[in-house]
Specification:
Largest sheet: none
Radius of gyration: 21 Å
Helix content: over 70%
Structural class: mainly alpha
Number of helices: 10
Distance between the termini: 54 Å
Shape: globular
Strand content: under 5%
């Protein structure tokens, strides 16, 4: 894409700003800030990746992945404000998911052990896990509030904390995975995913692009399940006091 063509893409931003102003949504400032930040962040990471791809230094690869996990943890942790210790639990869930996913891909020789494969796929995996964590925490808060009477009754009858909150945990894990599962059902029919679209636009064989997209699709599904289940195991006690009563 030429620089001129890239500049023309700002037309879409201008349309969004105009619509926001017309409907008095008050989003003009956020859209402008988001556009500038997004462009600068993408340009920055583009130059960083260009350097890493040339050096192929494993230390730099680990640093990039660690930074991704930290940022994803901070973002998802905002959904769990007030839950002491939620940040390290989110970080652990994402890190374990990334480690398992990448170990399988490299161990089974599904992808090449190069930064060109590891970093983009790690970024997509960590991003997917971040969204799952946020969805889980949101749903868990709603479940605890709506099921407070049921949970307290179970505790009064002698159930353990885990037994009392088990149903809420299961519903929250299920809810956090729904977008991923729905995406699997409609991929190729309703939407052409980003990785596949990018490869096709870059000139790759569509069949080859589909193979890589299937890899991402299946990996994301496993990553969503692993992340949500690990986070549920690590975090369910945070909704209780030391005396094992609901906060």
């Amino acid at each position: 894409m030429s620089t001129l063509a890239l500049g023309f893409t700002l037309t879409f931003v201008m349309i969004t700003v105009a619509l926001s102003k017309w409907q008095k949504l008050g989003l003009e400032k956020d859209i402008a800030i988001g556009t500038i930040r997004g462009a600068l962040q993408l340009l920055f990471i583009g130059y960083v990746l260009h350097f890493i791809f040339q050096t192929e230094h494993w230390g730099l690869i680990f640093i990039i992945i660690a930074i991704m996990i930290v940022i994803a943890t901070h973002n998802a942790g905002k959904r769990g404000e007030g839950l002491k210790g939620i940040y390290w639990r989110i970080a652990a869930a994402i890190a374990v998911t990334e480690t398992l996913t990448m170990s399988l891909m490299l161990g089974l020789h599904i992808i090449k052990p190069t930064s060109q494969f590891i970093i983009p796929i790690s970024g997509m995996t960590i991003g997917s896990s971040m969204i799952v964590c946020g969805l889980f925490l949101n749903q868990m808060d709603r479940e605890v509030q709506s099921s407070r009477g049921e949970i307290e009754a179970l505790l009064a009858l002698g159930s353990s904390v885990r037994q009392a909150i088990q149903q809420a945990l299961q519903r929250s894990v299920k809810a956090s995975m729904i977008p991923t599962i729905d995406g699997m059902k409609t991929v190729g029919l309703v939407q052409l995913p980003g990785m596949m679209t990018g490869m096709i636009i870059a000139g790759a064989n569509p069949v080859e692009a589909v193979r890589y997209q299937m890899l991402i699709l299946f990996a994301f599904t496993a990553a969503a399940a692993i992340t949500s289940i690990i986070l549920s195991i690590l975090s369910y006690k945070l909704w209780f006091t030391r005396e094992m009563t609901l906060k």
